[in-house]
Amino acid sequence: MTWLEVDEDSGFGIENLPYGVFRRDGTDARVGVAIGDRVLDLAGLAGAGLVEGRGWFASGTLNGFMAAGRAAWTANRARLRDLLTDPAQRAAVSPHLVPVTDVELLRPFEVADYVDFYASEHHATNAGRIFRPQGEPLLPNWKHLPVGYHGRAGTVYASGTPIVRPCGQRKVGPSDAAPSFGPTLRLDIEAEVGFVAGTPSTPGRPVTPRAFRDHVFGFVLVNDWSARDIQAWEGQPLGPFLGKSFATSVSPWVVPVAALEAARVTPPAQDPVPLPYLRADEPWGLDLRLEILINGGSVSRPRFERMYWTAPQQLAHATVNGASLRTGDLFASGTVSGPTKEERGCLLELTWNGTEPLELPDGAKRAFLEDGDTVTIRATAPGANGTTIDLGEVTGTIRPANC
After folding, report:
1. Is the pTM of this model over 0.85?
2. What is the fold, at CATH topology level, of the domain defined by 19-105?
3. Is 123 a catalytic residue?
4. pLDDT digits (tens, 9 = 90+) for 59-72
């Protein structure tokens, strides 16, 4: 138990301790840890000699600390737990606790590269049925490797950043009609879970599933905004480009891998058995409960535990060709969806490509997002000792196009 008053249901107790970057009253950005309804200023703690690494924590980004490696992450987490559970430390630590309502939460790390996967069998099957109704829902490679695409690091934004409706070529009408140009008419969301690399890897040397904890710092929530009409026209044969690259939002808190150990579960059985480089010797499904809200109303509750491809498998596949990890590499799961309509993770599925408009809790209907809509994705997980781990939320509001 911590000496700080923390609501048992807050999800930000001593078993969580997620890292983020914050700014207060125009001061320089610095690294903090969420505890209850407060942010613990790690730069301040380091300046007072209570933790190591002032250079890491006063830098305004998590990258320096993430690059320090697993031993530093483990030591700092243990030290923070000691400081927050030892009553004798209360007087020294309390001055460095700031109400979360008094700070601005920023993007927690500088993104080096961004990769988005397609790891939900339910999502991939639904998408296949929508776009290839006469064919097999899953393409032949899907159950043999984690399918993904390389995104754009420069448009990964902090939660709360407004999302400007993108413009591009759209194919509307008969198949022989020429494309038109303008704002997307099918703006969508993708509720995802991402992980961020801390420790780099050596070029030419793959990272095995067993080495996942040695390289990955933690998990975030991701909304990979999508312009479905732009994507559909441009995507053949090389896949997503402008339909995805305009914006991706990430949550402000990075939940350490260690905080999610109690959430690990056995993932779905994989058939056929993956090739040896993709086999893990421990279960890496994660019991994360997501919720999607549009304009404050809940529209879906996907379950991450049903994802076919796990995070260590995704990391192994991304590096098996010798591609090296850099600190700040972001890997997203792809849309998290389940077997029922109430668990679908995007409007493409929830409205079956616009043919079955979704009724929001306030009575409004949506095929896809309209200007002014606000989308929020949040998630929780079971923590150690019967606690709850809150992953926070990622949110964004749609602004009109500029074309």
Report:
1. yes
2. SH3 type barrels. (2.30.30)
3. yes
4. 999 999 999 999 99
